[in-house]
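hiii so um. not sure if this is the right channel but i have a protein structure encoded as tokens and i wanna go backwards to a sequence. like what aa goes where. can anyone help
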């Protein structure tokens, strides 16, 4: 009786695992639309950073920091 019940539970668990695997296995990653939106967002962020880095204030600050770093006596 116990073995019969244990076998039945094992079979049901395997069937449930197979069903879940089939349903969850088809969603393996981002779709093409999600890739496109991610790419657009990354390009927009890169353009924003480019504009910030090339602005006068930030450019001057970077030049100042680099100049001070290169003028360190050995």
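sure thing!! here u go:
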């Amino acid at each position: 009786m116990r073995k019969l019940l244990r076998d039945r539970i094992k079979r049901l668990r395997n069937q449930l695992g197979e069903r879940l695997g089939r349903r969850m296995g088809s969603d393996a990653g981002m779709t093409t639309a999600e890739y496109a939106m991610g790419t657009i967002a990354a390009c927009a962020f890169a353009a924003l950073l480019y504009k910030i880095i090339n602005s006068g204030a930030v450019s001057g600050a970077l030049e100042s920091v680099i100049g001070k770093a290169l003028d360190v006596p050995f």
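oh and The chain has one domain: 2-70.
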